[in-house]
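Our consortium's second objective concerns turning raw sequence data into structural hypotheses that experimental partners can test. To show how far this objective has progressed, the report includes one record in full. It was chosen at random from the queue rather than selected for favorable results. The single chain below, 227 residues long, was entered without modification.
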Amino acid sequence: MLKLISLLSLLSAAPAMAHAQLTELESRWLQAGQPVIAFARAQGLPIDIIVQPQNAPGAVPLALGYEAGRCKLVLSLRGNAQADSVLQGVPVARQGMMMEAMTAHEIGHCQRYAQGDWHALPRGFVEPPGRQQDKLTSLAQELRETRREEAYADLVALAWMHGRHPGQYQEVLAWMRGVRAGGDSAGGSHATQAWLALADGAGAFDGTASSFEQAQVLWRKGLSGDK
């Protein structure tokens, strides 16, 4: 959970919002994520947008906290080299798509929190006996639960991008795979490669259901093989 200290709360992601107080980079991120945020709010998700006004070296550029029943979408871009490194190699003209995908990822987390499903298995899913929680150390259990939440959020992002930018879907998927490959090793808290492989299949997101519902289908498939 994020501890929200010395943060500037913003009421919406519209271009007119507190514009003079935002940096050019912050405005770009918010503008790129605005369609996702508008959709999520239309679905009833309680979202507040927060921009850290102080330098935040080493922070995750975009993260989600949950406090008092509301999702807190937090931008930490000032003095933060990670804000550049996460988009390293992506042409400037394409960076907005990746920012949009990252926003959709965090909205996936928000939906899980708001539904009361955080770290819960989908309804009807039963762990095989050898992989049940009482067989794991507390650290291994924490890593697995976090990895599964990250996988679900990755799939929400991909379902969103497939629906809104189908022509660029493979580019977004390749970028996401690169981000994950540069992070945790197999079994780590952000090692979602098995789910990303499922998202590369033909027709993975060709349905008419919401991004959340489409993500749930592939998420369950990946859970069956997750140790």
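The partners drew two points from this record. The chain has two domains: 8-90, 119-223. The chain has seven helices and four strands. Both points have been shared with the crystallography group to help prioritize constructs.
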